[in-house]
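Researcher: We're teaching a course module on how sequence relates to structure. For the next exercise, students receive a sequence and then see the predicted structure as C-alpha cells, so they can try to spot secondary structure elements on their own. Here is the exercise chain.
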Amino acid sequence: SKLVLAMSGVLLGGGFLLTLLFEWSNPATLGGMTLPHKLLAAAFQSVTLRTAGFNTIDLGALTGPSQAVSCLLMFIGGSPGSTAGGIKTVTVAVLALSAVSALRGRTSVTAFGRTIEPRSIMNAVTLLMAGGVLCLVGACAIAGIEDAPFHQCLFEAVSAFGTVGVSMGLTPTLAAASRVILIVMMYMGRVGVLTLGVAVFMRRREPPRLKYPDADVFIG
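Model: And here is the predicted structure for the students to work with:
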C-alpha cells in the first residue's frame, strides 16, 4: 500500500508539472488558457493518462516531450488489483528501488523498512520487458502498414496496451489490419498481463535440483 501511494503521488505530481512545463506556451493546448484552467487541464491530463480515457486538450497537438511523458504514464498505468492497464505502479517502484540500490552498491532492495524479495524484482523485470517489446512490436507493425509517423503509431500502441483509450487522431484513419493489431494489444495489455501474473508469478516455486557455479558477468 505504501508503494502504491508513494508511486501514485510521484506519477500524478510529476505528470502535472511536466505537462505544465512542456505545454505552458503551446497555443494549441494550454497556451490560450487562463492560469486556473491551465492548472486544471494539466492535472486532468496527468490523471486521465493512467487509464481514464478522456481528454480536455487536443492530444494531437502535444509537443514532443509531452507525447513522451504521455506514453510513459500510459505504459505504467494503474496499481495492482485494479482494473487499470499498464505494467502497474508497484512494478515501476520495484525497478526504481532496484536501480537505486545498485547505484549505492547494496546487495538487497529495501523499502519502508522491508526487504523486497529477488523473485519480485525478477517479476518486475519480466513485466517491463514483455510490455516494452509488445508496444514496440505493435507500433512498428502499424507504422509498416500505415503511412504515419512512428511517434503517432507508438502513442496509439501504448494507449491500447494500457487500455487508456486516448488517441492522437490516428486510430480512426487506420486500416483494418492496424485496428486488429490495436485490438490484440488491448487484450494483451489487460488479459495478457493478468494471465501472465497468475500463471507464472503465483505458481508454486520449487527449489532447483541443480546448483550451477556462480558467474561474474560484466554489465555496461
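Model: If you want an answer key for the exercise: Residues 118-145 form the longest helix (28 residues). The chain has seven helices and two strands.
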